[in-house]
Amino acid sequence: MKILIVGAGALGILFAGLMSRHGGDVVILTRRREAAETISSNGIIISDGKSSWRAWPGCTTDPRTASSAELCLVCVKSYDTEAVARMISPYLNESCLVTTVQNGLNNVERLAEVFGPERVIAGYTLQASTLTGLNSVYHAYDGETVLGLHPSTTTPVEKIKQVADELTSAGVKTKTVENVYPEALTKLIINSVINPLTAILGVRNGELQELQELSWIIDRLVEEGVEAASLLGARLKPEHVKRRVYEAIKATYENKSSMLQDIEKGRRTEIEFINGALARVLLTAGRPAPANTLLTQLVLAFERKGRRSW
Ligand SMILES: NC(=O)c1ccc[n+]([C@@H]2O[C@H](COP(=O)([O-])OP(=O)(O)OC[C@H]3O[C@@H](n4cnc5c(N)ncnc54)[C@H](OP(=O)(O)O)[C@@H]3O)[C@@H](O)[C@H]2O)c1
User: Fold this and answer.
1) Which protein residue's CA is at the shortest distance from atom 31 of ligand 1?
2) pLDDT tens, position by position, 95-120
3) pLDDT for residue 305
4) Using a 6 Å CB cutoff, which residues line ligand 1?
5) Residue nearest to atom 48 of ligand 1 (CA)
6) Choice from 31, 105, 274 to test ligand 1 binding pocket (greatest atom count within 8 A of CB)
7) Euclidean distance between CA atoms 220 and 290, whole angstroms
């Protein structure tokens, strides 16, 4: 299967590395000529802190490359999803399946609008990686990727299974579930806790569980997230989601969240697509969303002013 990865960022480079390592036919589409040249001539380097290895996917800035892809993995931030979809859509073959495991609400819906619900595959990934250079990433966690049906997709189940098998045999361990929506929303709520709190406090994930003062805020975020999920059609149990939040904090103890890294680098965050999106779901239904609104506004203020050191 010819695989197109859109975005030469932390996740795109990791997936391209894992899949081309064993001979998979992978091309990365980037908008940076410098990245395309570096990856084409030096390959990509994946390091997990103990060892590192190199892989040789193709890399280009030419969207026409999309025309030969059989599977497209969208690996851009949520705020770029729609623009990227519209950019590659004229070139992408009608039979090419488009898969997203991005964080944030509404990526699937945006892709389904552009490509049609029968061509989009939704999911989430527990992989964790950080960009360390133009062509290198630190692979912090080798987690599972999960694909399945979503309210906005109608992709036949056998195609979803085929893609999961393809990813697994290419080196990205992937399973399928019948309905991926409840778990994807659970992951969104976990992100709505860990990302903004670590970004605002400037701490690694593990410190969240040591700061007792945060437990009240975490409870409110879980309650709001569960209510938003229910409005979106997924019934989640608050106690279960809360347990998952603390398990995720523990499992990623040493990690610096992507939102904290974005704030430190003065880059835009995905806050409007995580907490902002959950708040909008609640407010649109006439329900209050104080915790998500407050954290969204604080992170947006940090984005504008930058993190000051003192
Ligand atoms: N990293 C992880 O471990 C991880 C894990 C799970 C989920 N995710 C999710 O996966 C998504 C991607 O995350 P990430 O960490 O890989 O972000 P990232 O490091 O910021 O990478 C995103 C990449 O997309 C590129 N891009 C944006 N618009 C483009 C366009 N028009 N054409 C080509 N490339 C374009 C960006 O290019 P520029 O550099 O030019 O801006 C950037 O290199 C996010 O939704 C994130 O939440 C990430």
Assistant:
1) 84
2) 999 999 999 999 999 999 999 999 99
3) 84
4) 6-12, 29-32, 75-78, 80, 83-84, 87, 102-104, 125, 127-129, 131, 258, 270
5) 11
6) 31
7) 9
pLDDT of residue 256: 92
CA distances from 105 to 110, 137, 150, 185, 257 (A): 10, 25, 12, 8, 18
Query: What is the mean pLDDT of the segment spanning 65-84?
Result: 97
Cβ neighbours around 90 below 10 Å, total: 10
Tell me how far the alpha carbon of residue 280 lies from the centroid of ligand 1, in angstroms: 23
The protein residue whose alpha carbon is closest to atom 32 in ligand 1 is 31
Judge whether 29 and 66 are in contact, CB under 8 Å: yes
Instruction: Among 34, 37, 75, 299, say which to mutate for ligand 1: greatest number of ligand atoms within 8 Å of CB.
Output: 75
Cα–Cα distance for residue pair 281/185, rounded to 1 Å: 13
- Give distance in angstroms: CA of 81 to centre of ligand 1: 10
CB 49 within 8 A of CB 254: no
**What pLDDT does 309 receive?**
57
**For residues 245-264, average pLDDT:** 93
Which domains, from first to last, does the chain contain?
A: 2-178 (3.40.50.720), 182-305 (1.10.1040.10)
Specify the amino acid at residue 77: K
> Which token pair is 10?
């932390």
Instruction: Tell me the mean pLDDT in the region 221-233.
Output: 98
CA separation for the pair 167, 3 (Å, rounded) = 10
Give the per-residue pLDDT at 215. Answer: 96
Residue 308 pLDDT class (50, 70, 90 cuts): low
Short-list 119, 82, 88, 136, CA closest to 104: 82
